[in-house]
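Box 3.1 A note on notation
Throughout this textbook, protein chains are presented in two layers. The first layer is the amino acid sequence; the second is a C-alpha cell string describing backbone geometry. Keep the layers aligned when reading.
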Amino acid sequence: MKTLKKCRLFLLSFRKMIFLFSILLLSSIVQANNLTITGIAVNQTTQNVTFTLSWDNSWNITTTPNNWDAVWVFVKWRLCSNPTADYTHGTLSATTANHSYTNLQAMTTPCSAGIGGCGGADVTQSAVQGLTLDFTQGIMLRKTVTDVLGTVTSDVSLKITNLPAAGIDISTSVFAIEMVYVPQNNFYLGDATAGILGATNRFTDGSRFVVPGDLLSPYVNITAAYETGAQTFFINAPAVGAGTQITGVPAVWPKGQYGFYIMKYEISEGQYAEFLNTLSSAEQTIRWPGNYNTNRNRLNLIAGVASTDRPDRAQNYLIWSDIAAYLDWACLRPMTEMEYEKACRGTATPALAEMANSASTATVTAAVNFSGAENGTETFTAGNTVTQSQVYTNGDAGTTGPARCGIFATGSSTRTTANASYYGVMDLTGNVREFVVALAADVNSAVSSTQTGNILNVFDRRWGDGDIATGGGLHNVTNWPISTVATLAANTTNIIGQKGGDWATTLANVAYNQVSSRFLIYNTTTAINNTIGARTNYCGGRGVR
C-alpha cells in the first residue's frame, strides 16, 4: 500500500514476494523480489490517481499451465476532516480509455452472468478488458508481453469518479494484492486409490464408498457441466464404510472448473495492518486479532494505529468473520473447497496423500532453521512445510508460529521444496489454515444416504464491494456465509471449513495437510470454531476473485 495525505504525507510500503515456475513446473523457482507502489499523486480536478507500479519475476505464458500472475489494484480515500471514519472505496470510471498503464493489460474477472458485476456477460475465462470495464471496484493488471519471467514497471493512472472536489483535503491510499490466475479446465477432486489410508471425508465419484481394506476410492472428474447445472456430490464420510450423497448443488455454487484468480500468498500481517488502518476505531477493535507477541503474532494496535515489525509474516489468530470482512473490503471473495483443490493440484491426476507441493505427507519435512534475521529476505535452510510446532533457531529464535509468506522459494528451489502449488500459489499447505466455503448437507452424519443440498448451498461468485457493514466490522455480501456461521454440515446454509493444515499440525494429524482432506469440515473441533472470542493461533486465510 502507498498512502498520500494532503493533510500530511505518510508513505507505507510492505515487501511482497513473487516467485515463478518453469513452463513445466518442475525446475527451479526464481528468487523473490518486491512489489512496489511509488510516486503516488492525486488530481481531484481531473479525478486521476497516478503512481508507478513495479514487480519482479512476473510471468505470462501460453503453454502449460497457461497462466499468469497479476496484481489486483484498488483505491480508497478519506476526508482529512474526519480522520476516525472508514475510508471510502474508490469507484473507477467504467470507460477503459479513462485509465492508462504502460506494459500492462487490464483483465476481466471470470464470473457468471449477473453475479459479481460482470455487466451481464457470462465470463468463464479471463480476457483483456474491452471498451467498458466489467467492474469498477478495482483493476486486475498483468504484463503485456508473453514470456516466462521478467520485471514489470508501469506508470499507472486511474480515474476515480467519486473523489471529492478540488479544495477538499483527503487522504488517498492505493492497494495492490498479488494474484495468480487459475485457468478454466477440468480437474479432479479426491484421492488416488488409497482405501482407508486416503484423505478423511474426501469426495468420490459415488460408485462405492471405502470399507476397511478397500483399495478403491474413485476420484471425481470436474467438467464444465458441473458449473452449468445442478450437481450431485458424493463424500466418503463421516464414517469409514459410510457415505453421504448431496444432491441439487446449484450451478452458481463455484465448483472450480471455471477460471479464477487466487491470492498468491496468505494474508500477511502487513496486509492486515493496512486493512485495520482504513477502518473506524470501533471496527478496528472488533477486527484486531489481539494476542500480540504470542505465537509470533507481531500485529499491534495502539491509539488507533495498527503496525507490525514482521509485515511479511502470515497473519494468524484470524476467525472467519475477519477473513470475510477483509475479502469484502478488498473486493475479493472466499474460495470454495473445490477451488482449493484445483489451485493445489491443477489438472494433474490425484496422488496418494499428496500436499499442495505435490509431495506426500509421508515425506513432509518440517522447517526449523532460519537463514538469518527475519527481515523479509529470510528463508529456511531445510524443510518444505511450516508444520509440527517447531521451535525455530536463528531469526526470532525460540518461538513457534507461522513464518513469512512464500518463505521456501529460493533461486534453486523446486515446486516441492518451495512449497508451491501446480499454478505457483504459495503455502496452500502448512503455515496457517485456509478458510473455505464447504458443501452443506441436511444432517451431520449418514450411512449411504441422500441429503438435500439445493436449499443450503446458496454461495455464488459475487465478490465484495469494498465497504463492510458500518460500525459492526462485518461483511455485507449477499449469499456469503454469515459471520457467525456454523462449521457443521447440519441444516445450515453455507458452512465453513478449513484446509491445508498449519504450523502446529502434529505428526499424528499430518493427514490434515492432504489436499483432499475434509477432516476440518465435517468434524466438531475447537480448531474450526469460528465464533467471536474463539481465536486460534493457527488460523489465517486468503481469497479469490
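The radius of gyration is 22 Å. The first strand starts at residue 2 and ends at 5.
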